[in-house]
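Quick question, first post here. What does this chain look like in 3D?
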Amino acid sequence: METPTYNTAFAELEELVAQIEDKDIQLDTLAEKVKRAKELIKYCEEKLRGIERDIEEVG
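> Answer (accepted):
Ran it through. Tokens below.
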């Protein structure tokens, strides 16, 4: 699987949040989507920390 850009990962995360908030979501599907959302949150946080470090080095 190709490494997503921050924007792609964030867009997928937003879509997952909308699906997770659906009151009719099945429990098995919910668990799968929450797991993927956690992975995306971790990825986005790491990307942001890396960008922050790069900016601090420049400044």
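The first helix runs from residue 6 to 20.
The two ends are 34 Å apart (CA to CA).
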